[in-house]
Amino acid sequence: MNVDATIAGLIGAAIGAISSLMGSLLVGWQQSRIERQRWLRARDDKLIQDLQLAIVELTRKLAAGIHSMQWFMWVTEYQPEKFTIEQLNEKLRDYNNEVHDLFPELTGSLMVIAALDKDMYNRMSPLVNEFIELDWQIAMIAVSQDDSFSKSVEALASCYSKVSEYEKRLHECVSEIIGIRKIDRK
User: Fold this and answer.
1) 92 with 144: CB under 8 angstroms?
2) What is the distance between the alpha carbons of residues 122 and 104, in angstroms, rounded to a whole number?
3) What is the pLDDT of residue 112?
4) For site-directed labelling of 146, which of 50, 65, 92, 186 has its Cα 20 to 30 A away?
5) What residue ranges in the chain does DSSP mark as E strands?
6) What ranges in 79-117 are assigned the alpha helix state H?
7) Count of domains observed in the chain
8) Could you tell me the pLDDT band of residue 185, with boundaries at 50, 70 and 90?
């Protein structure tokens, strides 16, 4: 009978030890799972933050380009009679320098967005392409200024309206994108 009590005690101790070990393993596994979820959430939050900052940076650069376009063409829209060919050439030179420096920055910003989120790249890329198209139109008008200065001024005034419409679309699109990203986070 004494042997049975000893065996029962050993079995009880073994069961207790196994239970304690299993409990420790289970707690460790749960803690590891919780830490992984925290890490994934922190990584996702960082990616979203980086993407939002990249979108804002690209938007800032596009806005700088829009401002250069509008600054260059403002007088053609609101005071065409005061605009001279010398002023056109001076403003064109300034505009070209500003926009020339902006193009590699736009491309770089767009590539950062592509690296972070392909879908967002697909949404932002048309905005950059439209900016490039507007710049192309301005360049073609400026190149043809020798044909007729007054026609060039009229064409630039028309282009001013296109740039203003583009600016509104840019604001609407980016506001929608950033708003959507906020909703997606919740």
Assistant:
1) no
2) 18
3) 96
4) 65
5) none
6) 85-116
7) 1
8) very low
Q: Is residue 40 part of a domain?
A: no
pTM above threshold 0.85: no
Q: Is the confidence at residue 8, as pLDDT, over 80? A: no
Q: What is the pLDDT, as a whole number, of residue 165?
A: 94
Residue 122 lies in a domain: yes
156 burial type by CB count under 10 A (0-12 exposed, 13-18 middle, 19+ buried):
buried
CA 19 to CA 106: how far, in whole Å?
61
Of 124, 155, 117, the residue nearest 137 (C-alpha): 155
Enumerate residues 6+ apart whose C-beta is below 8 A from 35.
Answer: none
Task: Please report, for the domain that includes residue 176, its CATH number.
Answer: 1.20.120
Cα–Cα distance list, 111 to 58, 83, 94, 125 (Å): 10, 39, 27, 10
157 is in which domain, residue-wise?
A: 47-185
Q: Which of 59, 56, 69, 61 is nearest to 135 (CA)?
A: 69
Please report which helix (H) or strand (E) contains residue 134, including its range. Answer: helix 118-143
pLDDT band at 146 (very low <50, low <70, confident <90, very high): low
Q: What whole-number distance in Å separates Cα of residue 184 and Cα of residue 178?
A: 10
Number of helices and strands in the chain (H, E): 4, 0
In a domain, 152, yes or no: yes
Assigned domain for 10 exists: no
